[in-house]
Write a structure and sequence with these properties.
With 231 residues, this protein is α+β, with helices and mostly antiparallel strands. The chain contains 4 helices and 11 strands.
Length: 231
């Protein structure tokens, strides 16, 4: 997200932060986090997801596996606790995988507008279709966090800037394609499952953002629907 100064107009992005899951387990820096011996409320589900023995008891090996997952996706606290944030990410991954190659099975994204980029906030997935034909995707994306949600509805790409830099946050937004004020598709150097979410933009991996850049142009439709978990 960032200020967009174009033909004298200024479109402002949005800001905010949702506190992650917290545990009363000390205040050690994240990089120095040690494993907890405490089993979490989603212990069995997390063990199953990670291919660990499903016994509902926290072992040292369980903790290391959970902690590695948390570190990979920027989940805090990263102490190997099977809490709601960690399981929420895993549950979302399971649901995304279940979609397969038919992301518009419910036909919620319009099929009568030609080429269109679709964003399903509920499943945190995006894809490009042409009519009912899938052109690219579905791919995981990272949308707006609680209070700063990616706005729903039918929109159009109105400005593209391959080397955009946010003047609100002083961070690069490569391959930006703006479709609603300061909200845009763009790449980030974060896991797509990194909570709590963006400042309203639809974050993508570099590979995905490059592909969207090559497949879309000014005037192409974007349709955003659903509701991001936790918002």
């Amino acid at each position: 997200m960032g200020d967009i100064r174009r033909k004298g107009a200024v479109a402002l992005g949005v800001t905010g932060l949702v506190a992650p899951l917290t545990l009363v387990l000390g205040a050690a820096p994240a990089q120095a986090a040690t494993c907890t011996t405490q089993a979490g409320p989603y212990q069995k589900q997390v063990e199953k997801f990670l291919g660990r023995p499903v016994d509902g008891r926290q072992s040292a090996a369980d903790c290391r596996a959970i902690q590695a997952f948390q570190n990979k996706h920027g989940i805090t606290p990263n102490i190997g606790y099977a809490g709601s944030v960690t399981w929420g990410v895993m549950d979302l991954m399971n649901k995304q995988k279940a979609v397969g190659n038919n992301p518009n099975a419910a036909r919620k994204c319009p099929t009568n507008r030609g080429r269109i980029a679709c964003v399903n906030l509920t499943l945190q997935l995006s894809w490009i279709q042409d009519g009912s034909r899938l052109v690219y995707g579905p791919v995981p994306v990272r949308t707006g966090r609680n209070g700063y949600e990616t706005r729903t509805g039918l929109k159009k790409i109105y400005w593209r800037d391959i080397d955009h830099v946010s003047t609100l946050y002083n961070v690069p937004m490569p391959y930006s394609q703006f479709f609603d004020g300061g909200q845009a598709f763009h790449s980030v150097n974060l896991s797509m499952w990194n909570p709590p979410g963006s400042h309203g933009c639809v974050n993508m991996t570099t590979a995905t953002a490059k592909k969207y850049w090559s497949l879309l142009k000014n005037g192409d439709d974007v349709f955003v629907y659903g509701r991001k978990p936790g918002t």
